[in-house]
Design a protein that fits this description.
CATH topology of the largest domain: Ferric Hydroxamate Uptake Protein, Chain A, domain 1
Number of strands: 24
Strand order of the largest sheet: 3-2-5-6-8
Shape: elongated
Number of helices: 5
Helix content: 10-25%
CATH architecture of the largest domain: Beta Complex
Order of helices and strands: HEEEEEEEEEHHEEEEEEEEEEEEEHEEH
Structural class: mainly beta
Length: 402
């Protein structure tokens, strides 16, 4: 019985540690001042912040100047409570966002500490304590905004003024027309920059993003570039939350099934196959082991998974030899500017001395036609596996295989 209890305790500790390590604390800061109704500061006031979704509490005391500050903490809604001897308690709900510092001004009135003054006024959304121009996308906006593909860079570029797509496979967002290295990426305080190509690397899918902040002007001094993308990962709460999604895009049915494209010669043809499925989900909540451990208000977990399945056909145009050219007949061969192209016999040649030195003069094939007996086995094999052209266009001028 004792050994079983020890094993359960060790397993619980390991699980709790793993869950705690997997969930970042975010990068929002809560600070403020405590004063009385006359404007005098209140030192040594007890300030408690409670994260509403998880119930996690943090406690600090105001200093001799009435100021208090909490370490960088998880984003979300908080209940802030200030208490001092001989004064009524003060409470207010506030919202902490990624990368922002929120100032709270608590005003205590004389009375019994058992009484509480609830402040319902919202904290001003306009930032006055920093000059940074920034756009913040919360989880709800990330879910609702329509974008082509669940990609963070696409989302950022679609909703942030001054941000544009870099244009390359590994490129990220550009700001002010600068190169891709003008943007710095970070996730949960760790760098997410692609050092080789620029842009971002290792960023998670949108299902696991709790909030993203894009700074485009006079950004944080910790960033070495004009723009910064700061991502905060989602975490578990006191409620078990499950989400599932799937989006489908294809041309197998409906109106898209009958759409047609047009090639270079104006001939319509059916669009190639396109079936794209994006699917995934997430699951999070408190760590609860019945009769062993209750992690509500303490320990949480969160997992997510996202996948993309793409089945796609592509239409290309090619230049292949005509039927006559496969038989060695290159009569009428011209460049795209209309100049004739002459085929010379490599087995002939006379050396002549010109002013620039000796040159070899070869004889052209009669009628620009190579005899069948001179055709190489390799050429015959390549012609045999190469599709025939679909029109009579000269392949040296334009594509003739659609």
């Amino acid at each position: 019985m004792f050994n079983r209890l020890v094993l359960q305790t060790i397993a619980t500790a390991i699980l709790a540690t793993a869950c705690a390590m997997a969930q970042s604390s975010g990068s929002a800061t809560l600070q403020g001042t405590v004063k009385d109704t006359s404007g005098a500061v209140v030192p040594k006031a007890k300030v408690t912040s409670t994260h509403i979704e998880t119930g996690v509490k943090a406690i600090t005391l105001s200093n001799n100047d009435g100021a208090f500050v909490f370490p960088p903490t998880q984003i979300g809604k908080y209940k802030v409570r200030c208490e001092a001897i001989g004064m009524k308690a003060w409470e207010q709900e506030v919202l902490l966002e990624t990368g922002k510092t929120l100032d709270v001004s608590a005003v205590l009135t004389l009375g019994d500490v058992a009484q509480t003054v609830l402040v319902t006024a919202d904290v001003p959304m306009i930032t006055t304590n920093e000059p940074t121009d920034a756009t913040t996308l919360d989880q709800q906006r990330i879910k609702e905004l329509p974008i082509n593909g669940r990609d963070l860079n696409t989302l950022i570029q679609d909703v942030t003024p001054g941000i544009e797509y870099g244009g390359n496979v590994n490129d990220g967002a550009r700001v002010g027309g600068m190169m891709t290295y003008s943007t710095t990426y970070s996730q949960d305080g760790a760098s997410a920059n692609n050092r080789e190509f620029g842009g971002s690397t290792g960023l998670q899918g949108l299902e696991s993003v709790g909030e993203v902040r894009i700074e485009t002007s006079t950004g944080n001094a910790k960033s070495s570039s004009p723009a910064s993308v700061i991502v905060t990962t989602r975490g578990g709460t006191n409620r078990y939350l499950v989400s599932l999604y799937e989006t489908t895009r294809n041309n197998c049915c409906g109106v898209a099934k009958h759409l047609q494209d047009v090639n270079a010669n104006g001939t319509p043809f059916k669009l190639p196959k396109l079936i794209r499925n994006e699917y995934g989900g997430s699951f999070g909540g408190p760590v609860v082991l019945p009769k062993i451990y209750n992690g509500r208000n303490r320990t949480f977990f969160f997992v997510s998974k996202e996948e993309v399945a793409l089945r796609q056909g592509l239409t290309y145009s090619f230049s292949v030899p005509t039927v006559a050219q496969r038989q060695g007949n290159f009569a009428g061969l011209e460049t795209n500017t209309g100049l004739p192209i002459t085929i010379y016999d490599p087995a002939t040649g006379q050396i002549q001395t010109l002013t620039r030195g000796p040159v070899t003069i070869r004889s052209p094939f009669p009628n620009n036609t190579i005899p069948v007996s001179r055709e190489s086995p390799l050429a015959k094999y390549i012609y045999g596996i190469t599709p025939l052209p679909t029109d009579i266009t000269e392949p040296n001028i334009a594509s003739n295989l659609k």
